[in-house]
Design a protein that fits this description.
8 helices; alpha/beta; single chain; 236 residues
Amino acid sequence: MPLSRKWLTKGSNKARQPNSLASPLGKFDLVKRYHAEGEAGLISSRRGQPSNNRLSEAIRQQTVNLLHTHYADFGPTFAHQKLTEKHLLSLSVESVRQLLIQEGLWQPKQSRQVKRVYQRRQRRACNGELIQIDGSDHDWFEGRAPRCTLLVFIDDATGKLMYLRFVVAETTEAYMDALQIYLTRYGRPVAFYSDKHSVFRINLEEPVSGNGKTQFGRVLDSLDIEAIHALRLKGV
């Protein structure tokens, strides 16, 4: 039996309903409507009608006019304060907020923060054409050896791990040694794809000297290997 029907058919003794939220008079009225109309009688007669707290059209229009004339660049809280103090309007902050939104004078934070969308990069078609390089600092040996960095070379077309090496830190010297070993084994790729680590790119907006390239970048230039810098490189 549905809970509402069970509650209505057990009588009106409040002592038997210690946790009931309905008042005695309200319960008697519900029981009467239930017996007369069935479960349909339990639906509020005000369903679908405007709320009693709804602003009158006159107050609404007066508020809208004031918002456009004096407070078009105000936020909900400050506009509410001015409407209350200077114009003696009795409105809630939420009512003012909704009117500002409806009139296009204010946007919620969720609407104002436009998430930047990045186009997904297509993988290269040929094996060995583009190599992703990255370093990951971690306690790889779980306390059995000092913390270190794993350098990783990944083929972009296949996702294959081409070369891995543990080093003390992600330094230019470490990448130079790894680069030499990779080139000896696999030859020269068209490009290396990395993040914006200082090994790969000078991140100062206006460097005081040099050509804007790191030592590693100049080595790639001399080998005719393109350096591509991603916004961030996903860990592997």
